[in-house]
Design goal:
The complex is a heterodimer. By secondary structure, chain A is of the alpha/beta class. Chain A has one domain: 3-Layer(aba) Sandwich (Rossmann fold). Helix content of chain A is about 40%, strand content about 10%. Chain A is globular and about 50 Å long. The chains are: A alpha/beta, B alpha/beta. The complex binds thiamine diphosphate and magnesium ion. The site of thiamine diphosphate (TPP) has 17 residues of chain A, from strand 3 and strand 5.
């Protein structure tokens, strides 16, 4: 799917959001190494374009929803999660989007349509299928996105979800971030077919392979899938070919990557690709980019300072939020 | 009062709740056009249509997961897992997703979901179609577990389950489907966490669920002929668990027996007993006895199966162990 040029304002929004995500992820890594963020983290540096293109097609007021994986900071931020509750949640403090009970791997914010971030591989897919079932029954025209990695396509939940969504023609988009690795194992060592998209044929679904570093190409692919879902034609499988610059999680040095691979991908950086296109179209210049960079850095730093000032949750809240009444 | 079979009471609950609330939907394998393998749900598809009553592929993970997704976006799904044993293939969706999504989201999400499943032994279905699976779920905070033992409770508890804003595992005992008994006319709701006193007696308290309540009542009839009076309690739900009713009974009997169709390890009897030990050990005058299927696996051969699952004779033996003097 080739890129389709978007209006300047949409481009600028995507560019800025990608820059913001990049700054956030770098800061998360720093805070983790300083033990301010504990547990584990899975960064999405390099995969920012998928998140911003996805978010452009999500309208929570219409009832659209998104599920993603533990590698979900980018998606939460692209959908519009505020930086303060984001960082407070990362630190397990009050003021976090989930009161410190979810953490990096379980960011949730109903107001932006993010109904869940799943740390069990494949688990979010059937839940998105169910959200799409609500849409079909209520006929509210909403579209539902399930985001997952290339390593998720060999688990039963994945196949059951594509099949059920196809049989029921549900308005759901299956969006694969193929970053070439599932943890430390390359995709092709665990899959007999070259592309995740090839598997769509088994469920009679349309599939799109798209450059995951090109926000405008992704945007076009998602638009097609979204229209397909809205006109009652059912699901689409999109495979975005992308790459994570960091290791799988926390301190993974990613020694399993062949020499030169990272550099090849760095040369096709999603922020740079969009910025270059905007520069060529005289929509932005180096000075403006530097200004944007300073702006998002200041925003991020201020949110981190705010989060650091929040107390840890009172232990009285331990047993709260288990039961709805 | 109307006499209704247990399976028809389940259907009536579904029918009443689907009529009352258009957000209630129902799906599972062979449940719509065929009416279910246990013939619990015929007629619902014809009455409520293919949007709300659906046959699914054989995909337990997708059935439960999609029901969760529908639940958190505004519907009230009821789903059927044909045999509770099959919940094992979808355990993640039940225990990691349905049970924990509310907590992990800091209370943003609620999952008003009812998972109906047939469980229990006594029909020579072998090791993978006969287990009593309550122990798989009652150890998971975030799940409610209902275990109706009579047609009236099947009706009243299922209606309560469907209206509950939390995920409920609703375990129907497959050997009870044909049982017929009085069911109240009109709206009948049975609250969760409220055990039923099935028989009064002053010598020993026997706590059971479902088919084991029937065994306990048979044992009580036989023991009454010798002047031993058993009090029989049906817990009706395991989460929440009504220990108070058990305590009240122990004030009178001071002796406790629990009867489970499931294995010794991880069973609810252990929980009831530990709660009594913690909260009211002074009420007991005798050691407690747990009657269970021990460490067995349910065999096919009918006499072998009968030997494994507790019956009235094993309960009588347990009562005798207590050396009750009339
Ligand atoms: C069911 C399950 N099995 C194993 C894991 C451990 N695990 C976490 S992430 C991961 C790799 C997933 O790779 P992919 O889907 O490609 O996502 P990526 O991390 O590349 O974004 C594995 C094996 C898990 N979380 N869940
Ligand atoms: Mg991957």
């Amino acid at each position: 799917m080739p890129p389709v040029p978007l209006p300047e304002s949409a481009r600028k929004h995507m560019l800025r959001t990608m820059m913001l995500i990049r700054v956030v992820e770098n800061q998360v890594q720093t805070l983790f190494s300083e033990n301010v963020i504990q547990g584990t983290t899975h960064l999405a540096n390099g995969q920012e374009a998928v998140a911003v293109a996805m978010a452009a097609h999500v309208n929570p007021r219409r009832g659209d929803t998104v599920t993603c994986t533990y590698r979900g900071h980018s998606h939460a931020l692209a959908l519009g999660m505020q930086l303060r509750p984001f960082f407070a949640e990362m630190m397990g403090r009050t003021g976090g989007c989930s009161k410190g009970k979810g953490g990096s791997m379980h960011l949730t914010d109903l107001s932006i349509g993010l109904i869940g971030t799943f740390a069990v591989v494949g688990a979010g897919l059937p839940i998105s299928v169910g959200a799409a079932l609500t849409a079909q029954i209520k006929r509210n025209g909403s579209v539902h996105l399930a985001i997952f990695g290339d390593g998720s396509v060999n688990i039963g939940a994945w196949h059951e979800s594509l099949n059920l969504a196809a049989v029921w023609k549900l308005p759901v988009i299956f969006l694969c971030e193929n970053n070439l690795y599932g943890e430390y194992t390359p995709y092709l060592r665990t899959s007999p077919v070259a592309h995740v998209a090839d598997r769509a044929a088994a469920y009679g679904l349309p599939a799109i392979i798209v450059d995951g570093q090109d926000a405008e190409a992704l945007h076009a692919a998602l638009r097609q899938a979204s229209e397909h879902a809205q006109n009652g034609s059912g699901p689409t499988l999109i495979e975005a070919k992308t790459y994570r610059y960091s290791g799988h999680s926390r301190t993974d040095p990613a020694a399993y990557r062949p020499a030169g691979e990272l550099e090849q991908w760095l040369a096709r950086d999603p922020i740079q690709i969009l910025a270059d296109r905007m520069i060529a179209d005289r929509q932005i210049d180096a000075q403006e980019i530097a200004r944007l960079q300073a702006e998002v850095e200041a925003e991020v730093n201020s949110a981190i300072q705010w989060a650091l000032a929040q107390p840890f949750p009172n232990t009285e809240t331990l047993y709260e939020d288990i039961w709805a009444s | 009062m109307t006499v209704l079979a247990y399976r028809d009471a389940v259907r009536r609950a579904l029918d009443e709740e689907m009529a009352r609330d258009e957000n209630v939907i129902f799906f599972g394998e062979d449940v719509a056009r065929a009416g279910g393998v246990f013939k619990v749900t015929p007629g619902l598809f014809e009455k409520y249509g293919e949007d709300r009553v659906r046959d699914t592929p054989i995909s337990e993970t997708a059935i439960i997961g999609s029901a969760i997704g529908a639940a958190i976006t505004g519907l009230r799904p009821v789903i059927e897992i044909m045999f509770a044993d099959f919940a094992a293939v979808a355990y993640d969706q039940i225990v990691n997703q349905a049970a924990k999504m509310r907590y992990m989201s800091g209370g943003q999400i609620s999952v008003p979901l009812t998972i109906r499943m047939a469980h229990g032994a006594g029909m020579s279905f072998g090791a993978q179609h006969s287990q009593s699976c309550e122990g798989w779920f009652m150890s998971v905070p975030g799940l409610k577990v209902a275990v109706p033992g009579t047609p009236a409770d099947a009706l009243g508890l299922l209606k309560t389950a469907i209206r509950d804003p939390n995920p409920v595992v609703f375990l129907e005992h497959k050997a009870l489907y044909a049982d017929r008994a009085d069911v109240p006319d009109g709206e009948h709701l049975v609250p969760f966490g409220k055990a039923a006193l099935c028989r009064s007696g002053q010598h020993v308290t026997i706590v059971a669920i479902q088919r084991m309540v029937q065994m306990a009542l048979k044992a009580a009839d036989l023991l009454a002929q010798e002047g031993i009076e058993c009090e029989v309690i049906d817990l009706r739900t395991l989460s929440p668990l009504d220990v108070e009713t058990v305590q009240l009974s122990l004030r009178k009997t001071a002796r406790l027996i629990t009867v489970e169709e499931s294995p010794l390890a991880g069973g609810w009897g252990g929980l009831v007993i530990s709660r009594i030990m913690d909260e009211a050990i002074w009420l007991l005058d005798a050691p407690v006895v747990r009657v269970t299927m021990g460490e067995g696996i349910i065999p096919f051969s009918p006499p072998l199966e009968r030997a494994l699952i507790p019956d009235e004779q094993r309960i009588i033996a347990a009562v005798r162990q207590l050396g009750i003097k009339r």
